[in-house]
Design brief:
Helix content: 25-40%
CATH topology of the largest domain: Glutaredoxin
Number of strands: 10
CATH superfamily of the largest domain: Glutaredoxin
CATH architecture of the largest domain: 3-Layer(aba) Sandwich
Radius of gyration: 20 Å
Shape: elongated
Number of domains: 2
Structural class: alpha+beta
Distance between the termini: 37 Å
Strand content: 15-25%
Length: 221
Amino acid sequence: MTTHMPILGEKFPKATVQTTHGPKTIPDDYDGKWFVLFSHPADFTPVCTTEFVAFTKKYDTFKKLNIELIGLSVDQVFSHVEWINKIETMFDIKIPFPIIADTADGLSKQLGMIHPGKTQTNTVRAVFVVDPYGTLRLSFFYPQEIGRNMDEILRAIKAMMVTDTYNVATPENWPNNTLLGSDLIMPPADTIDKAISAQEEDECYDWWFCYRGWVNNFDEI
């Protein structure tokens, strides 16, 4: 088991956890899929409630991209269940994803979700994105007072899918970049021949800044 907080590019630590959908082993149960593990400070809190509603409304979009969602907080399962029932009643929705019932010394501590400067027990708003091979690819940490943006989480995962497939980079705010739009940035040339070839095949501002049009997109999802 990993003894330090995992960093980007490392395997996500293996853990068997209790959830509202029963016991699960992470990341093994999600082999072959992307998953987003997100923590919330506590059940029965208003900002967390808005996030659960937002994640639920985006759930079909995540699923179409083969992405699973997993919630987590340092609350017991019966608390999760009661809170979910309240949310579903108040907002006429069905929470479709599991929520981990963690402890302050469990996965939350291992993943650095407990920040002593904020609290000794509640988790901050952490987001961990893990790819189909069980590798940590992205992490966000938000303070408890700031709700997250689900569209940004989706955008980042879509960008990683594209960069993985085509060996490219995406510009700022892709696919709505003000300079390149949805075009993709080519890897900088590392030889003179590659620099010459790139400027012949791609659009370039200079030999180290070339880009190529993006034909496929996720508009239909």
